[in-house]
Structure formats: C-alpha cells, structure tokens
C-alpha cells in the first residue's frame, strides 16, 4: 500500500447523515488510533471503507494508491488488501471456518493454496492466537465466545496478510492474556509486512501495546483533532470535554442505547460533575 486518502466523506445510514465530511490520510507503515465518544461515526467510517452496502456515500472520495475505492465491490477491496476486523463479528452457520479462511486466501492468489500449505499456515496462526485447531472445523463464529470471535478476526488477518487493516474495538471482550496475544499478533504483522493500521479502541492499554504512530479523534462525524500519541493519554485522563472548551466544538450527546463504560467517558463525567459544582 502507498496511501489511503479520504476526502470530505459524507455517509448516511437509513437516511440519517452520520459522517459529515471526514478527511483522513493513512500512509504506509502508519498505525492510526481512531478515538472518539460512542455513536460519533467511528465504526461507520470503517464499514464504509470496507464497502458495507448499508452505508450510503452521498459525497466525497476514498482513494487507495490513487484508485477509487468507492467504485470497487467489497470483494475487490479485499483483494486490494483492505481488511476489517469487526466490532461485532457475525455468526455464519453452515460455513466452516477453515473453508472460509481458505476461500478468502485463494481469492487473493492466482493459484489455489495447496492443502498442506494452508494447514501449515493455519496451524502457525492458530498457535499464535492460542486458538484450538478444532475451531477451524466449526461454523464461522457460531457459538464462539466474544474473545474467541475477536481472536478469530486476528487469525484471519494473519492468514490474509492485508496491506491496510482496520480493527474495530478488537480488544473488547478480551481478557488480559488474550489482549496481549492480540497486540503481539498486530505487532508481528507490522514487523513482517508493510501493513498500515487504523484501529479503534477505548482503552489506553491496547495502545500502550501496539504503539500507534498518530491519533485521530472523531467528533460528530468529522475528524476534529489529529496529533501524536500524547492525545491518548489526554483522552484517558480528561475525556473529550476539552475539545469543547479548546476548539469550540460542541460534542453531541451519544445515543443512550450505545452507552458503555470506557476511557474518556468516566473522565468526561467527572469533568462535567466538577464543572457543575463550580457553577
Ligand atoms: N447499521 C446501522 N443502522 C442504523 N443506524 C446506524 C447503523 N450503523 C450506525 N448507525 C448509527 O450511526 C451513528 C454512529 O454509529 P457508529 O459509527 O457505530 O459509532 P461509533 O463506532 O463511533 O460508536 C449512531 O447513531 C448509530 O446508531
Ligand atoms: Mg463503533
């Protein structure tokens, strides 16, 4: 990958505009941490880059090495090396995990992979992810625990060797050991290929392990702030309220149904309480 360039991207879901002019560039070797309160459009951005048909691009562009990504089918995007590790991986009864993985690998190769070679790679990636080989014979994600689903997403990434990987809250549902394993795999892939990452997480812990090169904060469907990794610490300690005071950007309230406790929010709440007291 040379570069992914997103310009003034507007996206609607079910007639409601969610992304309101996103500008973002990802260059080779970069690992971008995408932060932002819940419900502000982070997952929408990733799903749009991957080509989920639910997300309607109303204007703007996404170029991968100068090629128009929005004109490509999901399948073409995957073949160009774009990968999405999903926040909520779907269960696909009837599709055997190993068959799915093999088909996905073959779609990016000229000649189908030899069976022994496939199993060798599968075994090595499964070991790295601490996934039992039996899981390869089960239906894709069916009955997998939250953590198993997330580890299986990373297993796919290891086998597909994408050039641009987007990981959406890949650390949610993971215990500490699994988190370290996932982070190790992300780093392993970075060291062994020219992959670029765009990762969403609410936890400074993941970022301390995978060491992003740059941070982008999404507020109200736009990238409101970009900067260095020190922004992760700041959000961890202070939440997102400072964006309102320093940049004058009103941070729209999140959808109550999407409330989860995470970094940023607790700090935000305490900042709000402090402010209310001061009044
Ligand atoms: N498939 C969908 N159907 C309806 N609304 C959606 C869908 N995906 C996202 N949204 C809405 O878009 C907004 C942004 O959601 P999302 O991109 O998931 O935010 P984030 O990942 O930042 O938490 C929310 O209000 C959410 O309800
Ligand atoms: Mg999300």
Characterize the structure shown.
A hairpin with a 2-residue loop joins strand 4 (55-64) and strand 5 (67-68). The protein has one domain (4-231): 3-Layer(aba) Sandwich (Rossmann fold), CATH 3.40.50. The protein has 279 residues and is α/β, with parallel strands linked by helices. It has helices at 42-50, 74-79, 97-106, 115-129, 146-160, 176-192, 204-210, 230-238, 241-247, 265-278; strands at 4-13, 16-26, 31-35, 55-64, 67-68, 82-85, 92-96, 139-140, 164-168, 196-200, 214-219, 222-227. It starts with a strand and ends with a helix. The strands form three sheets. A six-stranded mixed beta sheet has the order 6-9-10-3-11-12, with helices on both faces. Strands 2-1-4-5 form a four-stranded antiparallel beta sheet.
How many domains comprise the coordinates? 1
Distance between the termini: 52 Å
Low-pLDDT windows of residues:
256-263, 265-274
Write the CATH fold name: Rossmann fold
Q: Say which CATH homologous superfamily is assigned.
A: P-loop containing nucleotide triphosphate hydrolases
Largest β sheet strand count, sense and barrel closure: 6 strands, mixed
Coarse morphology: globular
Percentage of residues assigned to helices: 25-40%
Order of helices and strands: EEEHEEHEEHHEHEHEHEEHHH
Number of contiguous helices: 10
State the CATH class: Alpha Beta
Major sheet: order of its strands? 6-9-10-3-11-12
> What is the alpha-carbon Rg in Å?
19 Å
CATH architecture: 3-Layer(aba) Sandwich
Percent of residues in beta strands?
Answer: 25-35%
Class from helix and strand fractions: alpha/beta
The ligands bound in this entry are:
adenosine-5'-diphosphate, magnesium ion
Structure summary, number of beta strands: 12
């Amino acid at each position: 990958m040379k570069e992914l360039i997103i310009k003034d991207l507007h996206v609607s879901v079910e007639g409601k505009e969610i992304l309101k002019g996103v500008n973002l560039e990802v260059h080779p070797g970069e690992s971008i941490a995408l932060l932002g309160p819940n419900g502000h459009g982070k997952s929408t951005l990733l799903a749009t880059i991957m080509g989920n048909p639910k997300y309607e691009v109303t204007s703007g562009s996404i170029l991968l090495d100068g090629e128009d990504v929005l004109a490509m089918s999901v399948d073409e995007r995957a073949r160009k090396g774009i990968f999405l590790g999903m926040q909520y991986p779907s269960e696909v009864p009837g599709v055997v995990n190993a068959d799915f993985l093999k088909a996905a690998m073959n779609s990016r190769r000229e000649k189908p992979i030899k069976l022994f070679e496939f199993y060798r790679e599968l075994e090595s990636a499964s070991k790295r992810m601490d996934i039992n080989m039996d899981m390869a014979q089960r239906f894709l994600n069916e009955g997998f625990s939250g953590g198993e689903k997330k580890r299986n997403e990373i297993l796919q990434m290891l086998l597909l060797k994408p050039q641009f990987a987007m990981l959406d809250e890949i650390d949610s549902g993971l215990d500490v050991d699994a988190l370290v394993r996932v982070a190790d795999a992300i780093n392993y892939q970075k060291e062994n290929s020219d992959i670029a990452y765009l990762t969403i997480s609410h936890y400074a812990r993941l970022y301390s392990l995978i060491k992003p090169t740059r941070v982008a904060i999404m507020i109200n469907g736009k990238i409101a702030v970009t900067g260095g990794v020190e922004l992760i610490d700041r959000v961890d300690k202070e939440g997102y309220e400072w964006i309102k005071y320093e940049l004058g950007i009103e941070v729209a309230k999140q959808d109550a149904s999407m409330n989860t406790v995470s970094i940023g929010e607790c700090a935000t709440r305490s900042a709000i309480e402090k402010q209310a007291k001061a009044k």
